[in-house]
Each structure stands twice: as structure tokens, then as C-alpha cells.
Amino acid sequence: MPQITRFHVGERLSETAVHNGTVYLAGQVPDDATQDIRGQTRQVLDMVERLLAEAGSDKSRILMTQIFLTDISEIAGMNEVWDAWIPAGHTPPRATVQAQLANPAWKIEIVVTAAQH
Fold first, then answer.
1. What does the angle CA 29 – CA 41 – CA 87 come to, to the nearest 5 degrees?
2. In what order do the strands lie in the sheet with 108-115?
3. Is the pLDDT of residue 1 over 80?
4. pLDDT score at 2
5. Residue 50 has pLDDT above 80, yes or no
6. 106 in Cβ contact with 40 (< 8 Å)
7. 3-state secondary structure the chain
8. What torsion, rounded to 10 degrees, do the Cα atoms 48, 105, 76, 59 define?
9. Is the separation of the CB atoms in 59 and 52 below 8 Å?
10. What is the mean pLDDT of residues 5-23?
11. Are 43 and 87 in contact (CB under 8 A)?
12. Confidence (pTM)
């Protein structure tokens, strides 16, 4: 039976789980919620990048991304940061929806699934 490896295991959730060559990230949210959508998106994508590297993957290996915005009218600002971050030719399937997040100061939460190297 393939092993499951978990990173940053907490009482409620793990930040990352790896199974059979696939990396699953928990929803990533900004540390500094005082920033605008661009700043919060950069923070979250930096966290995604660090967690993927720790699990033996990178942003060019993303299989699927789910993006939750508290205000869908801010999608252009989020897309500006996303487009600069994701490598050309490696854009994954993606869903972007408006949602109420656990902390009202958060503007964005991103969930990623990726393949290991």
C-alpha cells in the first residue's frame, strides 16, 4: 500500500499530504490580511511555492488549482499576480469562485494539487 506523507501536521489539518506522487495542499491564506488583493495573492502564491518545493514539486507541476475570492470583482488584480507567477505553457486547470472565507479580512484562499518530480 502506498505511503501517505504529511507535512506541518496540526490538530485540525496538515498543510500538505503526498500520496502516490501527488501533492495535495490545504487551502492557503495570507499572513498579512491588511494588504490589497495583489499583496494577499503574492503572499499565498509564495506559500504555495514553498510548500510544493518542500514536497518535491514546483509550480510547473500543478495539476489543478481552486481559487476562492471574497469579492469576485477583484479577479483582475488576482489574475495580474497569478499570470506573472505561473510559468508560460504550464497553466493548470483552474476554478475561481466567490466565497465567504473563515476570516473576513482574507481576500483570497488557494487550494493546489500537483505532481511530484
1. 120
2. 4-9, 14-19, 22-25, 108-115, 62-69, 94-98
3. no
4. 78
5. yes
6. yes
7. CCCEEEEEECCCCEEEEEECCEEEECCECCCCCCCCHHHHHHHHHHHHHHHHHHCCCCHHHEEEEEEEECCHHHHHHHHHHHHHHCCCCCCCCEEEEECCCCCCCCCEEEEEEEECC
8. 0
9. yes
10. 97
11. no
12. 0.95
* Burial track 58-88 (b if 16+ CB lie within 10 A, e otherwise): bbebbeebbbbbbeeebeebbeebbeeebee
Task: Tell whether the torsion through CA atoms of 103, 30, 82 and 74 is positive or negative.
Answer: positive
38 near 80, Cβ under 8 Å?
Answer: yes
Measured in degrees and rounded to the nearest 5, phi and psi for residue 104 equal -65, -15
Whole-number Å distance between alpha carbons of 14 and 38: 26
Amino acid at 3: Q
What pLDDT is stored for residue 68 in this prediction? 98
Residue 7 CA: distances (Å) to CA of 19, 24, 69, 116: 12, 10, 26, 14
